[in-house]
Amino acid sequence: MRLRNVTGSREYIADSRFVIHEPKEQKGRWKEVFGNENPLRIEIGMGKGRFIMQLAKENPDVNYVGIEKYSTVLLRAIQKMEAEELPNIVFIRMDAEEICEVFAPEEVDRIYLNFSDPWPKDRHAKRRLESREFLARYNECLKKDGVIEFKTDNKMLFDFALEEVPEAGWHIDAVTYDLHKDEAMMQGNVMTEYEEKFSAMGNPIYKYIISR
Ligand code: SAM
After folding, report:
1. pLDDT at site 208
2. How many Å apart are CA 138 and CA 130, to the nearest integer?
3. Which pTM was predicted?
């Protein structure tokens, strides 16, 4: 998701109190950021933030960090927060490649990946957020019993993601090839922006939950 250049989006973000501007300084100190001991869940590539903000609203006893690479996209999430402020969520603008510099071992309780960029060329496979390289990064900061939840409508990306799971030493706890028709896995499902768009077009939504 890349919105057209929004003039001044970087400056706008730099002034926002909903954004953690030096996230590496918070490594190991996220409890202090939120001022409580609640579990910390993160979404990588949150886009405009609809999914994670809805989770934050529904689960006031959980802390959330939304991570997004592009300022122009993050800006939209900030604007939503300005309209409806939530105490248990903050945003970071960064590339997920740096995740281990931002979260300490065992600091993250759950990771959400939703409709990640597919990077269709084989030579770009390492950039996919579900690749073994990224799973190795998540391995460093996710609690021992933590899980990753991934949704997409992209079959190529989903098949790739499933193959990467055992390669990285993880295992699949649950999987569906049609989430919206899977009663058990649909329980408590929160739709993302892309999920709403692609399911409305009739695309099945794939989902896995994995752990180590
Ligand atoms: N998760 C949202 C949804 O389901 O509606 C947005 C999906 S959009 C296709 C993917 C988002 O992930 C984009 O906003 C993109 O900028 C972001 N993204 C892709 N690679 C990223 C990375 N390495 N680090 C952080 N964000 C990333």
Report:
1. 99
2. 10
3. 0.96
